Amino acid sequence: MADLAAASRLAHDFVERHPSESSDHLESVSDGEAAELLAAMKPETFLKAFRALSTARALGILKSSDLAAAANLVVRLPPSLAGVLLRGFEPAARQELLACLPARDAAELSKLLAFPEATAGSLMDPRIAAFRHSAKVGAVLARLRTDDSDRTVFNVFAVDDEGRLSGVVSLHRAALADPEATLDSVITSAPITVSPFAPRSQVVEIMQSGRVTSVPVVSVDGAPIGVLRLNELMQEVSQELSSDLVSMTGASAEERALSSVGFAVKKRLPWLQINLVTAFVAAAVVGIFEETISKFTALAVLLPVVAGQSGNTGSQALAVVLRGLAVQEITSRSVFKVAVKELFAGAINGFGVGAVCSVSVYAWSRSFGLALVIGVAMVAAMAIAGVAGAVIPVFLTVVGKDPAQASSILLTTVTDVVGFLSFLGLATIFADLL
């Protein structure tokens, strides 16, 4: 028993001091093993490592934990993160877990879950400090001092007699004000607010244009129901983009650096097999022009140049569009506008790159025809690659597939095929000039 107690204390101390390393360990063990650690530890200690986990991994651990341990952890999470995780449960299991939470916390999370995903209502923190606008500043500060909840208060919301938001007072301003002054007397300007149904991209835009770090979320009748903070929104967007970056290589967004070999192989191998099939498609295109390549061996030397530049162009467009989809800056309705922009951007960049490439090829081969062919092929391939990089992720989103994970493989196939076809096709047509 003494050995078990000592081991438990060591585990607590390690998680307390090294949450990042602890999260790496949690990523490498099974959900059941991680759930056992949760049951054996104080929730506030386990929380430090838990918050560094990927959403999918965190959800798996919660689902494998007993209700009491899961509830003790969920109640200590930021409401926006808790809401995201609860959305991953089946409705019946979610209600069971909510039933184990304190009534106030369950009610707050239920409000979050009632709004569509990635909207202000689903991302807000409902734990706000709202007081009547006629309340005295000293009394408000005294109430906040005795508040035993774990909410972080930066602003005090003043509401009128009908419960509608009338203003926002920063805690700093309230602390410096006369204790006998009323809240409405220290309000300096009308508050910037958002609807709970506003998309995340709109919220970020409002915050950036208004140069505010937080914004109240108000109901249809103007009552404050939560608050959104810019740093939390940007962290979520950054996490989503980093997951997309991993997915673009064909790896899994849930995979960590210290995940097991078996997990890595399971997640990567299927996409590598798909990539192999698409590589054979590109190779088949080259095979069509086997006779042309046999006559002009310089084509084989220059072929990777065209394919490589078109691939880079497509990847640039893909990265921009994936970011736009992540923050909901673009939708399927704006795909034509984005595609046209990428078409012209790719063509102009292709002209610049193609001019330099043509001069270099002419200096190397002394063939005006070869220089002309690779220059024109570069413009065509890069223009089409830009369009493909814009259209493919939007198309995958429309059909319900993960654009981050599947886009890069499809894009590689398109850019290789287009690059090979444009260069070798033009070389075949203008063979007399080579």
Supply the key terms.
MgtE N-terminal fold, disordered N terminus, three-stranded mixed beta sheet, 20 helices, 434 residues, 67% helix, mainly alpha, Tetracycline Repressor, domain 2, two-stranded antiparallel ribbon, CBS-domain
Characterize the structure shown.
The protein is mainly alpha-helical. The model is unreliable at 1-8 (pLDDT under 50). It is elongated and about 90 Å long. The strands form 2 sheets. The chain has a 3-stranded mixed β-sheet. β4 and β5 form a beta hairpin. It has helices at 2-17, 19-28, 31-40, 43-50, 55-64, 67-74, 79-87, 91-99, 103-113, 120-123, 137-145, 171-176, 200-210, 230-247, 261-288, 290-295, 298-326, 335-365, 368-398, 403-429, and strands at 130-132, 155-159, 165-170, 214-218, 224-229. It folds into 3 domains: 2-114, MgtE N-terminal fold (Alpha Horseshoe), CATH 1.25.60; 130-229, CBS-domain (Roll), CATH 3.10.580.10; 248-433, Tetracycline Repressor, domain 2.
CATH class call of the largest domain: Mainly Alpha
Strand arrangement across the biggest beta sheet: 1-2-3
| Amino- and carboxy-terminal Cα gap | 85 Å
The residue fraction in helices comes out at 55-70%
Protein structure class? mainly alpha
Radius of gyration based on Cα positions: 29 Å
* Count of separate DSSP helical elements: 20
Q: What is the name of the CATH architecture of the largest domain?
A: Orthogonal Bundle
Spell out the CATH superfamily of the largest domain. Answer: SLC41 divalent cation transporters, integral membrane domain
Broad shape: elongated
Q: What is the succession of H and E elements? A: HHHHHHHHHHEHEEHHEEHHHHHHH
Mean pLDDT: 80
Overall domain count: 3
Proportion of strand residues? 5-15%
Low-confidence stretches: 1-8
The main pleated sheet reads as: 3 strands, mixed
CATH fold label of the largest domain: Tetracycline Repressor, domain 2
